[in-house]
Please model this.
Amino acid sequence: MWKWTCAGLLVLLMASNAWWLYQAIDLAVTEKYRQAEKYEQERTTSSLIRISNELVRGYLKQDLIALLRKTHPETDLFEKEGALHIPFLSFPLDKNGRVEGIEP
Model:
């Protein structure tokens, strides 16, 4: 009986260790995918901001407001400290009311 008990406990120990090893590998693979996705999103956002910077630079304040209302009708637009703001983006304005660029 003692041998069967030891064998059973050994099998349970090995199964438990295999389960924890599987969990560790799965977590590592998941984190690697998450890091790759974050890297791609950061690069995409950076590229879009650079492109958008060139497109809106020099816009008049009124034209930018019209564009933002058209593209983000549900978003609150406000002006503060010399810039127009929507969630996650700011559009600094120069003294003439022209857009200087985009700031995330």
User: Anything to note?
Assistant: The radius of gyration is 28 Å.
